[in-house]
Amino acid sequence: MMLLTARGRAWLAGLALVSAPAALPALDDEPARVVVTERDVDESNREIESAYAALVRMWREEFRQRGAPFRTPRIVAYRDAARSACGVLPPSNALYCLNDNTIYFDEVFLAAQAKIAGRALGTDGDMAAVGIIAHEMGHAVAVQAGRFSRDSYTNEATADCLAGAFARRSERDGMLEDGDTEEAFYAMARAADPELRPTGNERLDRRMAARLARARHGTREERQDNFRRGLERGSTGCMGA
């Protein structure tokens, strides 16, 4: 998800390798609830800190090869709601604020995503949280590369693809662990747009559909396909040479 303000209004512009492994569990079977401890948050934050450093190295190098500087986004953890240059940040979310070039994330929410993925897949689940940060960094990268669109889905597809490019780079550098690819697929599926069901009220249905369209991230298949494109082809598959 990316937030920026224009004339006092908040504009929402965007918040999962080869084909998805057949062993992925159905989302209906995922843990409905997890208990997140301070230890879980600390462990998740350490993984995020390491991933953030790797992301910065990667994109500085790629921009240098393009002959341009990369303005490194800050990264800030919060809990519940928080204020930013893009206004009040919602709980249980992660987003990139263009106004102050900062990635914000609810640290309890990301720790929960890792724990949910880990329980479903029998892994540590860390790539579920790392992939979210890589996606938000993707928004910063796309904006600086001149790839910003007024269309929400276009922005989200690019960010998903760039998260896949980071996974590709991490694999090349020997940083991926067993299960990380499955965790990334699982996280993308969980973050897909909801399927709208008719309420019986046509006016309300149209309003809900329009609202979703303005902030569309993609279906399960679309998000996984966009991530796969970056994993297979790197950043050029997302933004061109």
Describe the structure concisely.
The chain is α/β, with parallel strands linked by helices.
Largest sheet report:
5 strands, mixed
Could you tell me the strand content as a percent range?
5-15%
Provide the low-confidence segments as ranges: 4-26
Could you tell me the radius of gyration in angstroms?
17 Å
Spatial arrangement of strands, main beta sheet:
2-1-6-7-3
Write down how many β-strands occur, each being a DSSP E stretch of 2 or more residues. Answer: 7
Measured between the Cα atoms of the first and last residue, the distance is 24 Å
Share in helix = 40-55%
Domain module tally: 1
Query: Average pLDDT value?
Result: 84
Tertiary shape = globular
Instruction: Write the element-wise H/E pattern from the N-terminal end onward.
Output: EEHEEEEEHHHHHHH
Number of helices: 8
Tell me the structural class: alpha/beta
